[in-house]
Amino acid sequence: MVKKLINDPFKVTVEEIEGFARAYSHILKQVGSHAVARRDAPIKGKVGVLCGGGSGHEPLFIGYVGYGMADAAVLGEVFAAPPPPYILEATKAIDGGAGVIYIFGNYAGDNMNFGMAAEMARAEGIEVEIVNYYDDISSAPPERRNDRRGIAGGMFVIKVAGALAEMGADLKEVKRVATKARQNVLSYGVGLAPGTIPATGQPTFTLAEDEIYFGIGAHGEKGVLLTKIKPADEVTEIIVSSLLNELSLKSGDEINILVNGCGSTTYMELYIVARKVFMMLDELGVHIHRAEVGNFLTTQEMAGVTVSILKLDDELKKLYDFPAYTPTIRICPELHSKFKK
Question: Whole-angstrom Cα distance, residue 127 to residue 124?
Answer without folding.
Answer: 9
